[in-house]
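Extended Data, panel c. Modelled sequence:
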Amino acid sequence: MTSKQNLSKSIKSTPKIIVYALKQEQTNFAPPKRHLPLVDPTLIRAASQIYYTYCEVHPEIQGRATGVAISRVTYRGKVIFTGCPVLLPQECFVPLSQIESYVY
């Protein structure tokens, strides 16, 4: 018997398992809600300064941002317009709701 015949015979004799999977539509996907982590007040102050400066320079874009990604080391940051930003290890995300509700 050749190896091809042996393989064919072993495939026929093994029990078959059928697996069904549901196709998940992207429109039905909702990311899990996360609680806001505690952020250093100094970072919030720096993030609000970055955000409000950006709003002064670009008044046509006001209201579309979701927050500020800011470095914990250098306090340099960027205004973010996506829902779930990708951050560097030394960065943290300060959401706009936290910036706007912060009392100096």
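The beta strands are 67-71, 77-80, 91-95. This feature is highlighted in the accompanying rendering.
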